[in-house]
């Protein structure tokens, strides 16, 4: 029990993730609004400030807080470095404001003999002078104090209510009875790519689409240029490391492998090296370095896959046998999911006695590639390694490369997905891949973007992955691909697709959500310009995303009523309401649907009687709408979605240019 | 950033008040259910335990937790001392359970060659033996381990799934990779009187109801016996200390005082002493001690008022002038609420340079009376003193007298009322006094009893106080008194009334919620047995409270639907549903109202087709009810409320005795 003279109560600092255990996330320049309950016994006036600083720094920045209602106070700050910041609240009794309030009341009530009160005021002014160092303010405050001692009540009233004196007194507050909230909120500040990006995944060995041999790093530029034309800005490669030979898998995950088959890139490690080497069939490290530079030249970034899987041929097996699980006879254990066996992979034991060396080596892998210019990592199955390990690795990497972005590929239980985001993962895969109905989508995205999760969990939406070909895509034909890409590109500012999606590839292993003849196991022939492609639609989506700032934000998603169970209606609106998008998607890939949609007029800054323009950025068509109820009709074969930019009518002219 | 091998994630410990900053509250023997999210990477089986201990103790008690759903775990504990306890969660990978799960899967799948797995199992059993000290369990575990090394797969399967081995392995868990939640929840454990009591407040000088002279301590027994007959168990006195003479107030708060007028007991301190003395007009300290014993003999307790008000004659003024606020001329400041002046009271400065001595002296006042047998204090206006002061005082008092109960008389802003409860006040006055309509009552009591507040804020409900005669009582006549007392006595297990209520006194200062001719300022004549009295109703309420355990609980209040806006319908049901009360109150003191009430059958453990008995404990009448919809009719002049005890029909007999 502390024995302190604390005077102002500060409570319920928000945001405060798990009592400050984990940081929330913000982008450079983005607002962070901090709130707290601030109040004091008795009738004294209270003042409060938001304090923030880079973690490790000693000096706080300070912003005055403003009262909202019911003793809740708020202030906003933003950050300009990629770093972790901490913030808290300081509050104190404002003696001068309290004195002023009382003096003004007494003066206005015509009380006589305010001599004592005036001397008290003068003392407060002189106290401020003593706090003001050797500044000009000091001279001014001393002069005002002297003046107050000799002034009439009318003169003191004028001084007490003057902007001059109040400005000076606010600048030099007496914080002798200040309280500071003892728990600090934390925020990880990241570059914009962490929260606004479009990812394109392809296997470099499939770059040219040759059916019986693999492409090399030096062959990847055409595929990359195509992705660039579609508007993607992150090129993501599955593992590029040497592929194991022992128990190598064959096509369609066969346990036998024909000679010449390329193997699974996720079985990492061979005589050519481990996680810090590249598969010779793809080229050399120098080739890779060349490719990274080519990608950067195109104003794009590369993302690598970090899959902690070791083939029996991985150098670690010989160099660090203690890092693996062992059987009683001393042999190394392969992966199992009883009764299934995975004899091509040895799992690592993150709690082996030499765990510190293992954790450091894993960190060194990321540092190795970061040094070569890779600053985005997609992490394979992070939920099968300790959360404490990820927290260690990510914080160690950020010490040297604060700009590194980590994407968590955890398709697992909700709380594990969340804690990985808290522990440091920048972005996460989501259940979006399996959320197809209107209710499912609205419920899930309300949870993602409107609860506490929105402060730390950044969804990266994928309609497909090499591991997942959802039933909706298998069965819904081309419209399904239009629908799912539209949703992914607009429900979150970060989305990605696995190549082949643009070709509407949907041949599955019967009864499973897996691609048949998957390029995970074999070479794959493709015509990247096959006529069925939806590249124009993808290109339009990414263009619209770039041109509309409302789509750069995450927490501004709101769902609205549409009178048809197959039509999803949502908005993305900037804080200043200067970029307003209303999005309607027909979720049924088979049938045309129409619906009255209930436009959120207030959110859009529109009045009930106002005419406004709804400009479909996908088709280019423009509609004149009016009032809250308007009708849309969406044929999945022609146009399953509209992204309507709302423009208000400026002036009385009928010229469309006057909508802004 | 810690560099730890932690393995299991523990999150969202609940209850956890303000991150463990403040304790929640429980009664001796009462259940505390603790929950947390517990999960781990990968597929290992996890085990978890709730740990708790008295604050300051080194050893934890431990109870195994059970999984609920979605990685949420729970366990229950309870406490047997008046003390502050702390609790947290420990969790660890259960290597043996994980091994068992895998072994059973492989065995059932008919896998051959389980030799390696059996040796792993034996090693885990032998590890448990090494953890079991020199117990009998050690011998047994070593024997089982040896046996497993030589057994057949069938025999190992039988051992692995046996209660014997699993019981032993659970008793000696391997916690080498255990995580412990680093933040501790805290709980203040109190005696039952803290949460179940009926208070009766009277001014000892008014004990005999003489119009022109005061009663003394030795005259109080008849009034106390009357309160005892009405079922009250706490006798609460406004301040009993010497009353100031300087600027003494007269009747009806007049600033002039006639000779012989007794003064306001809240202007404390005279030449006869301060807060550790008694007003000579009431008797001596010896008389007071005698009265305390008489009250205790009657199985009741006394509560004293702790009002930190000093009259200009208080000994502190001479002994500790530094404790007061001073004007620039050195004179002591009286209380003000500009432009109003209160020249009979000097406020204390809790932040004066000698504040530690002041805070200690205030604490010593409570210790002084505690030593004389007073263990309940009603604290006047705590919200005008620093919260940190109360936290200090209460914790200091509890070190010596852990059974002391503090009631906060803070009618102020909601967050201040809450933080006083967090800082240590056992109970609080509430806004109940002004909540009259159905919606107001349901909303307010849902907040009090169903939100986080219910864990730390114990409402003590007062329909009136010497300072407040609500409009509802002024205007509603006798029915208003029946209605408000019924609500107070059943909406919370703690209620109180200020004497005169039982006589339906309702004469107010015109236009104000204050008693006219208040005994705060004068002697007051009364016939304590005036015919208008509602003592029989009060007596019935307190009897019903004592006989029904559902009314001893706070968090079991639930509101239900009644099809009339004037009829409030709520239930109080014990956890085991062995005491079920349905309460209906007509909130309109002027008119008869009827309503269909929607009985919460499931909560009552009733089926839709079942006949049951509703026994009105106020009138003694019994009704046969059936299904969810039943009708009530309440005439405020005859019977504004029913407290219906629900009895199920046992067997087929029609004899009412067979309802239980």
Report on this model:
With 660 residues, chain A is of the alpha/beta class. Chain A has 15 helices and 28 strands. In chain A, a hairpin with a 6-residue loop joins strand 4 (46-54) and strand 5 (61-64). Chain A is globular, with a radius of gyration of 31 Å.
Helix content of chain A: 25-40%
Rg of chain A, please?
31 Å
Quick one: overall form of chain A?
globular
Strand percentage of chain A lies at 15-25%
State the separation between the terminal residues of chain A, measured CA to CA.
Answer: 61 Å
Spatial ordering of strands, largest sheet of chain A: 18-17-16-13-12-11-20-19
Q: How many strands, what sense, and barrel or not for the largest sheet of chain A? A: 8 strands, parallel
- Tally of DSSP β-strands of chain A: 28
Class computed from helices, strands and strand pairing of chain A = alpha/beta
List the uncertain runs of chain A: 652-660
The oligomeric state is homodimer
Q: Biggest interface in this structure?
A: A-B, 54 and 54 residues
Contiguous helical run count of chain A: 15
Mean pLDDT figure of chain A: 95
Ordered list of secondary-structure elements with their pairings:
Two copies of one chain form a homodimer.
Chain A: E1 8-14, E2 24-27, E3 32-40, E4 46-54, E5 61-64, E6 66-67, E7 72-77, E8 84-93, H1 95-108, H2 115-131, H3 136-149, H4 153-160, H5 163-171, E9 179-180, E10 185-190, E11 197-201, H6 221-229, E12 234-237, H7 285-297, E13 301-306, H8 315-319, E14 335-337, E15 340-342, H9 355-371, E16 376-380, H10 387-400, E17 405-409, H11 414-423, E18 427-428, H12 438-450, E19 460-461, H13 471-491, E20 494-498, H14 535-547, E21 557-560, E22 567-573, E23 580-586, E24 593-598, H15 601-604, E25 611-616, E26 622-626, E27 629-634, E28 641-648
Parallel strand pairs in A: 2-10, 11-12, 11-20, 12-13, 13-16, 16-17, 17-18, 19-20
Antiparallel strand pairs in A: 1-3, 3-7, 4-5, 4-8, 6-7, 8-9, 8-10, 14-15, 21-22, 22-23, 23-28, 24-27, 25-26, 25-28
Helix pairs in contact in A: 1-2, 1-4, 2-3, 9-10, 13-14
């Amino acid at each position: 029990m502390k024995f302190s003279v604390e005077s102002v109560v500060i409570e319920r600092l928000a945001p405060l993730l798990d009592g400050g255990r984990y940081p929330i996330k913000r982008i450079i320049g983005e607002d962070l609004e901090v709130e707290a309950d601030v109040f004091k016994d008795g009738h004294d006036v209270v003042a409060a400030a938001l304090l923030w600083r880079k973690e490790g720094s000693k000096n706080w920045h300070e912003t005055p807080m403003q009262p909202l209602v019911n003793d809740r106070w708020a202030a906003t700050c933003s950050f300009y470095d990629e770093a972790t910041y901490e913030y808290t609240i300081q509050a104190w009794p404002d003696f001068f404001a309290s004195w002023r309030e009382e003096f003004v009341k007494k003066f206005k009530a015509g009380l006589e003999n305010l001599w004592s009160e005036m001397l008290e005021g003068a003392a407060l002014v002189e106290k401020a002078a003593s706090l003001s160092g050797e500044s000009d303010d000091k001279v001014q405050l001393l002069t005002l104090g002297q003046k107050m001692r000799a002034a009439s009540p009318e003169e003191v009233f004028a001084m007490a209510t003057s902007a001059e004196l109040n400005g000076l007194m606010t600048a030099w507050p007496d914080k002798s009875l200040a309280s500071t909230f003892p728990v600090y909120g934390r925020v990880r500040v990241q570059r914009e790519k962490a929260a606004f990006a479009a990812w394109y995944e392809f296997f470099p060995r499939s770059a040219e689409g040759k059916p019986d041999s693999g492409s090399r790093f030096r062959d990847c530029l055409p595929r990359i240029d195509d992705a660039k034309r579609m508007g993607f800005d992150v090129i993501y490669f599955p593992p590029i490391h040497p592929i194991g030979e022992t128990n190598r898998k064959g096509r369609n995950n066969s346990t036998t492998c024909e000679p010449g088959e390329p193997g699974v890139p996720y079985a990492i490690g061979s005589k050519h090296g481990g996680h810090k080497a590249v598969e010779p069939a793809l080229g050399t490290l120098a080739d890779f370095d060349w490719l990274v530079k080519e990608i950067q030249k195109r104003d794009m970034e590369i993302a690598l896959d970090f899959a902690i899987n070791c083939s029996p041929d991985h150098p670690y097996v010989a160099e660090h046998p203690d890092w693996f699980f062992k059987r009683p006879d001393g042999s190394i254990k392969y992966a199992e999911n009883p009764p299934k066996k995975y004899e091509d992979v040895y799992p690592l034991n993150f709690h082996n006695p030499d765990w510190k060396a293992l954790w450091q080596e894993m960190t060194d892998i990321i540092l190795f590639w970061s040094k070569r210019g890779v600053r985005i990592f997609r992490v394979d199955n992070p939920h099968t390694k300790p959360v404490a390990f990820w927290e260690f690795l990510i914080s160690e990497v950020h010490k040297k490369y604060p700009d590194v972005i980590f994407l968590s590929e955890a398709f697992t239980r909700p709380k594990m997905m969340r804690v990985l985001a808290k522990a440091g993962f920048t972005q996460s895969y989501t259940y979006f891949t399996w959320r197809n109905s209107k209710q499912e989508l609205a419920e899930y995205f309300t949870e993602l973007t409107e609860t506490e999760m929105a402060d730390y969990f950044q969804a990266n939406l994928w309609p497909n992955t090499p591991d997942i070909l959802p039933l909706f895509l298998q069965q819904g034909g081309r419209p399904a691909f239009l629908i799912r890409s539209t949703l992914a590109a607009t429900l979150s500012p970060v989305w990605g697709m696995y190549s082949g999606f643009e070709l509407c590839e949907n041949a599955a292993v019967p009864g499973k959500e897996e691609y048949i003849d998957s390029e995970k196991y074999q070479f794959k022939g493709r015509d990247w310009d096959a006529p069925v492609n939806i590249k124009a639609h993808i290109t339009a989506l990414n263009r619209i995303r770039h041109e509309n700032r409302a789509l750069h934000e995450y927490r501004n998603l709101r769902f609205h009523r549409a009178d048809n169970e197959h039509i999803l209606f949502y908005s993305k609106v900037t804080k200043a309401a200067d970029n307003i998008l209303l999005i309607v998607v027909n979720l049924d890939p088979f049938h045309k649907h129409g619906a009255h949609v209930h436009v959120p007029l207030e959110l859009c800054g529109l009045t009930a009687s106002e005419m406004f323009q709804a400009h479909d950025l996908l088709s280019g068509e423009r509609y004149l709408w009016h009032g809250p109820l308007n009708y849309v009709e969406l044929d999945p074969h022609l146009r399953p979605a509209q992204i309507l930019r709302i423009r208000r009518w400026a002036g009385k002219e009928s010229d469309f240019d006057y909508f802004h």
